[in-house]
């Protein structure tokens, strides 16, 4: 079909008879001298790199060309498919679009295509990037042949929907991502049938050519290899390192771990960062060959060093030649300096002017000789020539000094530009890390290590931004590009700071919610313990016969002491913790409805519990009181309420259950919401009977009172042991025994599981008996109702760590606090802690700083 290859030179463009015109998509219109050309892999197209191409254009400021290789995408199809003809396609593309110093990027098959181009035409390629494909013959996996077979089956089935094609392809490939990648090659024909744009039969027959790599030569310019850590094509980079270095001696290898062959699809952020850094690295540095070319004409001229005073014969002619050689040398020096100036203005980095300065120092002796001759000669024409030489020499010296100043200024701007580019890359990386952190946080995945990485990156980034700001404001910089880029950095930094501040606030809220849950669990645990003690207390009889055993008396006394101890300790602790939670809720920026609702339920439950305990403490309970009569003392009036466990609402019994019976745990444990509705309010608890029953009860009480006044009081006997609880009067009427129809109270097994020794279920801080400050701090820590971690700093007097300051946090970390002891003569000693520029009471500090509460 094609004739043999021929090359012709027409306007500097090489044409190949076998080359095809590649379809492409261009991103950007920057006109930079070093554009980037991207080549896809097997079964791919230019659209696979669309997102990365746009990002590269923004990051590098260069034109990006994403091309379709032959037999792919919208490019022409050809029976011949190997790297030699693909290289010719790329060379023709570069030449026809007049691309200078192109940077070639290729993945998989496209990687071998760009490597072949760089080896055959190194003058057209300034840099090379190859993604997951070594420059060695490598056997392709069986999956590619299966893909060709699947494509053939799909076309033979004449499917009309892509979902039907996917169902067939699923029989050959389980990975949905790869299937979607392959199905991007499908398009609907005019008959409504889905067909593949790629000639799969040609590509299937050319798999051996695609796996081969026979290009020779050497490409000594910068080359970057990017490999996937889990890709089967990463092994040859290690095993055949020497062979690769022979072809590409100036190459580096970057491995992205936990990625397969499609590195750019699995980790586009990492690939973008690597390519951007590589493109910007030393791109505008003048090479050694360029420097040699720049100074070659100056090196070719010899510095005149003749001593004309020793020549007596032919002095005028020798002087003319001498002045002519000096003038020619100075003109060449001016021309060299002018070229250097143009290179600097073109942003080409020149490391030094030493070659020119060395020649200038050699020429200095000759110029001094000219000055002496000008003073000695009497002929005016020579005097004028020598004076002109001195003037041109002074001009050249001034020109070189201005070049130094210009070069230093360009070097400074170049450093600022590089710093800005580094800042932008760091900002992108930080934004991705924050995004990943939020994703992990939403998925409840561990993120502590990522949080530390964010902390470590924020500080250096802030220093770089501050350094650039100082240089941009202190120096007079007229470069519009730098000014615009600096404005972009300021805008993005402000946006990033807002994002970081919001992240800090969210972390504080999360920490507060964790603290709230911990403290609320402790409060509810103490309430559960109180309810169990109240239930046990309520089961104890009001009076004890003299015939009761000593063991029963001791048990009742133990229950009473247990209730008294819990009441004395739990009441102030719960009050303190509920107030602390209420203050924390009030100071929150955001309001969490669940937290507020739980706090309200705990407050209501605590108020009801306190009312019940107050009523219970008015009940005579000493087991040692007198008990001559087998009859009970009547219940107080406020305890006369119907039991919520009555069989029927309208049924009344002479004996009424006390409110404590309502606190008896149910057979099944209730949820927090059900428990809240169960303990609704004291009024509801004590008004279960009808108004008629209440009226009858009230009349009965009045009748008993009136009849009691007509009866004489029976003789009282002295109790066995004295009791501080006032002994009740003997009832004036024998109360009716408890009805057998009253429902029995069933104990709750879960309440039995509550440990009554809640006071001892915590870790205490052990103080140094020889240190008064440590003793006082231990007293505060151990007396706190909330568990707080405390650690004394080693070999530091008065230095302590408190709570979660030992764990990493955004913008925080391990922090040490300074404490001191204030002793008073007539008051209790106080411990102060250093906060900011002043001192604060340690007890108040621990209560106000919720994040110090330990887990």
From TrEMBL:
One of its GO terms (cellular component) is mitochondrion. Residues 768-853 form the GAR domain. Keywords: Cytoplasm, Cytoskeleton, Hydrolase. It comes from the Eukaryota. Residues 704-719 have a biased composition (Low complexity). It is found in: Cytoplasm, Cytoskeleton. GO terms for molecular function: carboxylic ester hydrolase activity; microtubule binding. InterPro entries: AB_hydrolase_1, AB_hydrolase_fold, GAR_dom, GAR_dom_sf, Karyogamy_KAR9. This is GAR domain-containing protein. It comes from Rhizopus stolonifer.
């Amino acid at each position: 079909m094609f004739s043999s290859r021929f090359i012709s030179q027409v306007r500097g463009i090489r044409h190949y008879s076998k080359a095809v015109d590649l379809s492409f998509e261009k991103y950007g219109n920057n006109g930079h001298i070093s554009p980037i050309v991207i080549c896809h892999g097997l079964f791919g197209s230019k659209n696979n790199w669309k997102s990365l191409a746009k990002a590269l254009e923004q990051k590098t400021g260069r034109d990006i060309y994403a091309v379709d290789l032959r037999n792919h995408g919208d490019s022409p199809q050809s029976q011949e498919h190997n790297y030699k003809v693909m290289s010719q396609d790329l060379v023709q593309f570069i030449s026809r679009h007049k691309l200078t110093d192109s940077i070639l990027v290729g993945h998989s098959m496209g990687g071998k295509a760009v490597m072949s181009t760089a080896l055959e035409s190194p003058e057209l390629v300034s840099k090379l990037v190859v993604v997951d494909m070594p420059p060695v013959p490598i056997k392709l996996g069986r999956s590619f042949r299966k893909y060709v077979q699947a494509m053939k089956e799909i076309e033979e089935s004449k499917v009309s929907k892509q979902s039907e094609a996917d169902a067939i392809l699923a029989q050959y490939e389980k990975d949905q991502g790869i299937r979607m990648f392959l199905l991007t090659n499908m398009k609907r024909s005019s008959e409504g049938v889905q067909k593949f744009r790629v000639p799969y039969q040609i590509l299937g027959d050319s798999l051996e050519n695609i796996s081969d790599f026979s290009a020779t030569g050497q490409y000594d310019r910068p080359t970057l290899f990017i490999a996937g850590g889990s890709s089967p094509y990463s092994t040859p980079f290690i095993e055949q390192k020497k062979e690769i270095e022979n072809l590409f001696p100036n190459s580096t290898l970057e491995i992205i771990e936990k990625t397969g062959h499609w590195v750019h699809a699995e980790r586009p952020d990492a690939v973008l960062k690597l390519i951007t850094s590589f493109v910007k690295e030393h791109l505008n540095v003048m090479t050694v060959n360029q420097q040699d070319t720049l100074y070659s004409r100056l090196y070719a001229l010899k510095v005149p060093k003749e001593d004309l005073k020793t020549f007596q014969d032919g002095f005028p002619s020798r002087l003319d030649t001498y002045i002519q050689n000096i003038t020619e040398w100075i003109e060449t020096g001016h021309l060299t300096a002018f070229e250097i100036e143009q290179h600097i203005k073109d942003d080409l980095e020149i490391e030094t002017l030493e070659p020119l300065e060395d020649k200038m120092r050699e020429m200095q002796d000759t110029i001094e000789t000219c000055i002496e001759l000008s003073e000695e000669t009497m002929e005016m024409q020579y005097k004028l020539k020598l004076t002109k030489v001195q003037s041109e020499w002074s001009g050249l010296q001034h020109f070189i000094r201005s070049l130094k100043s210009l070069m230093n200024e360009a070097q400074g701007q170049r450093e600022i530009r590089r710093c800005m580019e580094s800042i932008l890359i760091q900002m992108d990386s930080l934004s991705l890390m924050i995004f990943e952190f939020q994703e992990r946080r939403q998925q409840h995945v561990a993120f502590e290590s990522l949080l530390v990485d964010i902390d470590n990156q924020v500080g250096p980034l802030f220093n770089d931004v501050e350094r650039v700001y100082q240089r941009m404001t202190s120096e007079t910089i007229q470069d519009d590009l730098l000014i615009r880029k600096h404005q972009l950095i300021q805008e993005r930094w402000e946006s990033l700071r807002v994002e970081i501040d919001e992240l800090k606030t969210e972390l504080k809220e999360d920490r507060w919610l964790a603290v709230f849950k911990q403290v609320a669990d402790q409060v509810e645990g103490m309430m559960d313990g109180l309810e169990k003690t109240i239930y046990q207390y309520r089961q104890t009889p009001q009076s004890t016969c003299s015939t009761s055993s000593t063991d029963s008396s001791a048990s009742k006394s133990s229950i009473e002491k247990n209730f008294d101890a819990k009441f004395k300790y739990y009441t102030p602790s719960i009050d303190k913790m509920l107030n602390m939670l209420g203050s924390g809720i009030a100071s929150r920026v955001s309001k969490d409805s669940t937290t507020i609702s739980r706090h309200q339920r705990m407050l209501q439950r605590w108020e009801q519990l306190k009312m019940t305990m107050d009523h219970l403490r008015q009940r005579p309970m000493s087991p040692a009181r007198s008990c001559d009569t087998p009859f009970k003392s009547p219940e107080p009036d406020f305890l006369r309420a119907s039991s919520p466990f009555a069989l029927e609402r309208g049924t009344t019994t002479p004996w009424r259950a006390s409110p404590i019976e309502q606190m008896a745990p149910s057979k099944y444990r209730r949820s927090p919401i059900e428990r809240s509705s169960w303990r609704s309010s004291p009024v509801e608890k004590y008004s279960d009977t009808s108004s008629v029953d209440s009226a009858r009860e009230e009349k009965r009480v009045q009748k008993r009172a009136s009849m009691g006044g007509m009866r004489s009081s029976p003789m009282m006997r002295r109790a066995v042991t004295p009791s501080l609880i006032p002994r009740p009067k003997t009832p004036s009427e024998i109360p009716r025994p408890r009805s057998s129809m009253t429902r029995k109270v069933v104990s709750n097994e879960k309440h039995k599981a509550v440990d009554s020794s809640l006071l001892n279920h915590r870790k205490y801080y052990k103080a140094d008996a020889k240190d008064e400050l440590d003793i006082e701090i231990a007293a505060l820590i151990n007396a706190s109702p909330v568990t707080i971690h405390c650690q004394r700093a080693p070999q530091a007097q008065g230095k302590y760590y408190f709570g979660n300051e030992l764990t990493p946090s955004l913008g925080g970390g391990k922090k040490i606090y300074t404490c001191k002891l204030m002793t008073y003569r007539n008051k209790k000693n106080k411990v102060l802690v250093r906060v900011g520029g002043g001192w604060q009471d340690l007890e108040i500090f621990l209560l106000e700083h919720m994040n110090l509460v330990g887990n």
